[in-house]
């Protein structure tokens, strides 16, 4: 007979909170696991009443969705947390932001009032800064990419090398240059649809190298600006927390 977990008095989850947080500056080099450890420490320091799982090794009921890769900055990372009593989302945000290290910044907390949040994260908006790349060279490479039916790239995964089409996930791409900041730095803004495997900004850069031999002479700076439901025009994404705010407003009117 399999051993049974010990009997424990586990407080039930009475509320779920959804967080949007940013990963900025040097903290962009933190891994997903680094952030998990930092958040769980911050939750304990801020005395947030976390809900725990049952079983032999109870752990906080925290869900991490579609996290950005190590080395990538982001303004749109999402976490869902179960708590054992109702909390004021603004107070939770302020308490966590006060104890998390600068660069891991909680931007917003809302009560989770809708289901299937992960399904709403259909696409991401990425900003890729390419120092020492001329705008005209970037525009030519992007035009070649968008004109292609498919562009196969290879990436090493934990199960070995995998080859997939990077072009299919690129919904839109725009090129620009910030003359006032750095005239020698071209800016590529991408809307990339999520899928399996997930096409990352470095995969798109590999595709640009394949179709136009565009090779950045220095490492690019990558930031996720947003992720959420894909706009029908394909040029941006909607706020994935908006349905929770709508339901919160409706709930407030009926109180």
Principal-axes shape call:
elongated
Low-confidence region ranges:
none
Radius of gyration: 21 Å
Structural class: alpha+beta
Mean pLDDT: 91
Distance between the termini: 51 Å
Order of helices and strands: EHEEHEHEHEEEEHEH
Strand content: 25-35%
* Full CATH superfamily name of the largest domain: Pseudouridine synthase I, catalytic domain, N-terminal subdomain
Q: What is the CATH architecture assignment of the largest domain?
A: 2-Layer Sandwich
CATH class of the largest domain: Alpha Beta
Key features of this structure:
alpha+beta; two-stranded antiparallel sheet; 255 residues; 2 domains; Alpha-Beta Plaits; 26% helix
Brief sketch in words of this structure:
The protein is built from six helices and ten strands; from the N terminus they run E-H-E-E-H-E-H-E-H-E-E-E-E-H-E-H. It has 255 residues and is an alpha+beta fold. The strands form two sheets. Strands 1, 2, 3, 4, 5, 8, 9 and 10 form an eight-stranded mixed sheet that branches.
Topology readout:
Blueprint: E1 15-23, H1 32-45, E2 62-65, E3 73-83, H2 89-99, E4 104-111, H3 117-120, E5 123-131, H4 135-147, E6 152-157, E7 160-165, E8 170-177, E9 185-193, H5 201-212, E10 221-228, H6 242-254
Parallel strand pairs: 3-10
Antiparallel strand pairs: 1-3, 1-4, 2-3, 5-9, 5-10, 6-7, 8-9
